[in-house]
Every structure is written in C-alpha cells, then in structure tokens.
Amino acid sequence: MTLQLRRAEPADAHAAGDICYRAFKAIADAHRFPPDFPSPELATQLVADFLGHQRFYGVAAELNGKFIGSNFLDLRNPIGGIGPITVDPAVQNDGAGRALMEAVMRESESREIPGIRLVQAGYHSRSLALYLKLGFQVREHLVCLQGALTGSAESARRVRPAIGEDLSTCNRLCMSVHGHSRNGELADAIARGTAQVVERSGRVTGYATAIAFFGHAVGESNADLEALIGASKSYPGPGFLVPTRNSELVQWCLRAGLRIVQPMTLMTIGLYNLPDGAWLPSVTY
C-alpha cells in the first residue's frame, strides 16, 4: 500500500469535507463528546473556503490513489496555524496523520515562519502523543464554552461592527497582548462582517473576529472580553475557547449560564510569547 502526498486543490473539497466530518465525529463519538462539525455540508464549506483562499496551504494524502485525508496551514499572519487535520477513520493510526503533519511543518520551515501552533482535543490522547513526538510544546489548557448567556454586558462599554479603519488599532492591541498581529484573519473577518470592536469612552479597547470556534479575541481587560461575549447572539460551532489560566473569565462565563463542552490544548513550535492581557484563542491558535 502506497501513501502519497500532494498539494490539495479546490476539486478536493467534497472528499476532504466528508472525511473531515466523519473523522471528527468518530473521535468525538468514541469519547462521548459532541462533534466539531454538525453536518458534512458545514465541514465541506469550511474546507472549500480554505482551498479557495490564497493564504492557506493545503496538503492531501492518497492511499493507492484514493483520497484519505488532508491538513492545512494558515498563512495569513506572521504565526502559522495548523489544521484541521483529518484522516479517513478506516485508515487512521497507519501513519497518514503523521505524514500530513510533517508536510505542513516542512512547508512552514521552507517559508521561514517563526512559529506554528495548533489546538488539540484534550480528550484525544493519541493526537496529543503525536504532536508531542513531533516537537510541539503544551502552552495552555483551554475550555470550549457554549450555551445561552444570561444578564447583560457592562453598560460603560459599547460593542459595534469592526471596519477597515479599525485594523491598525486592533493590530496594536494584538501586538501588546501576543507580540504579533493577526492582521490577515482580522481583515477577512471584517470583510465577512463578523468582526466586532469594543469601545470605552470612545476608544477601542478590544476586538473579536467572532466569538466562535474559529474566532479569536483580544482586550485590554477581561471586561472588554465580557462585553464582546455578551454582545454575541450565538457562538458558532461547538462554542468559543477560553484559557483556564484566566480563572476570573472562566468563572464569569459559568456564572452567566455557559457550560463547558470540552477541554482543549494549545500547542506550539517556535516563537511563542506568553500573552500579556486578556485573550481568546481560535481552534487554530
């Protein structure tokens, strides 16, 4: 049996999306957790968006000529984000996952990206072991939160849609918290209409690309993130991620009626600055 890797193409979207849905569902079902994607259609749409974006690198795995899996590298920002990586459940644990990970790691090295990151399902010990073997370090324990928020955000803060003119201010906020910007992601979110900023006394003090599984946020304080969370009508996907090290924010969310859906782990290789401020990661990093 011959495993081959190649550059993923837009025509792979249906096969890759179907495997993405089935792979995550199989792992989640085995551990009695809800799946990351509720339907094959949503998984396929996500993969199609990645394959159609010039700043994503996708790699496909084929076994004896049959498509069996894929992986992605987000190149929109100075730091690279990995995933989703998925392999057909029928051929998992036979080396394809490792090969797909090594492929995007080689790509990041060839592009001289200073750091790469991923978020791993905390209940899945096999993927944790694989990433540790490949050299990733555990940086943060996360929880995914979902539910209906009760109460209202602090009235002194105003949340509004982000516009192009907010990019430089938001990038400075991200730099102050993480030491790098996520300009590419934020620009895409503004174009989609999902990004929001929070203001206090007319000054932008935080932003979110979306309070969602694939969204991230930064703020000067937890109160900024609370305002962004409170202003969101829903939390697309399984929920949004919060570092458990920020116990104050996690406790606020739980008191407000949200529930923990699953544990997750932020892992990195290369450049990493311990965040200095309030932040929410995406499922990529």
Major sheet characteristics:
9 strands, mixed
Continuous helix count: 8
**Per the principal axes of the C-alpha atoms, what is the gross shape?**
globular
CATH topology of the largest domain: Aminopeptidase
Describe the 3D structure.
The chain is of the alpha+beta class and 285 residues long. The chain folds into two domains: 3-113, 3-Layer(aba) Sandwich (Aminopeptidase), CATH 3.40.630; 146-280, Gcn5-related N-acetyltransferase (GNAT) (Aminopeptidase), CATH 3.40.630.30. It has helices at 13-31, 40-51, 96-110, 125-133, 167-178, 183-192, 222-231, 247-255; strands at residues 3-7, 56-63, 66-74, 80-82, 86-87, 115-121, 137-146, 157-161, 196-200, 203-208, 217-219, 240-243, 259-270, 278-280. Strands 1, 2, 3, 4, 5, 6, 7, 12 and 13 form a nine-stranded mixed beta sheet that branches. Strands 8-9-10-11-14 form a five-stranded antiparallel beta sheet, sandwiched between helices. α1 crosses α2. It is globular. The chain starts with a strand and ends in a 5-residue tail after the last strand.
List the helices and strands and how they pair.
Blueprint: E1 3-7, H1 13-31, H2 40-51, E2 56-63, E3 66-74, E4 80-82, E5 86-87, H3 96-110, E6 115-121, H4 125-133, E7 137-146, E8 157-161, H5 167-178, H6 183-192, E9 196-200, E10 203-208, E11 217-219, H7 222-231, E12 240-243, H8 247-255, E13 259-270, E14 278-280
Parallel strand pairs: 4-6
Antiparallel strand pairs: 1-2, 2-3, 3-4, 3-5, 6-13, 7-12, 7-13, 8-9, 9-10, 10-11, 11-14
